[in-house]
Specification:
Elements (H helix, E strand, L loop, with lengths): L7 E5 L5 H22 L8 H32 L3 E5 L4 E2 L2 E2 L1
Antiparallel strand pairs: 1-2, 3-4
Length: about 100
């Protein structure tokens, strides 16, 4: 005979945060830009600061794309590790839920 209490199945999984991946990508791009700008001779028409800004922008685009791809890969791997639980509602009493 089936139970009269309704049961529900829920899945619980962890999800990685996107912001650390993006901040890490920008930090790597800035570090690469510093290495490139200060390891080459300065340009005649540009200051090192403007070259650093331009190279950071150029390196940020592929770095952010790689960071987003890494985040999606980690999220897909963690999706496989979800746990499933069967839950029932709590019983109510006169003074509130137990």
């Amino acid at each position: 005979m089936p139970s009269t209490t309704p049961h529900r199945t829920v899945s619980v999984r962890t999800a990685p945060k996107l912001l650390p991946f993006l901040i890490g990508a920008v930090a790597v791009a800035f570090t690469a830009a510093v290495v490139v700008v200060y390891s080459t001779p300065p340009a005649e028409n540009y200051t090192r600061a403007s070259s650093l800004g331009h190279m950071t922008l150029v390196f940020c685009m592929p770095a952010l794309a790689l960071a987003a791809t890494a985040w999606l890969t980690v999220e897909k791997l963690l999706r496989r590790k979800k746990e499933t639980y069967s839950i029932a509602p709590a019983e109510r009493t006169a003074d509130g839920p137990r």
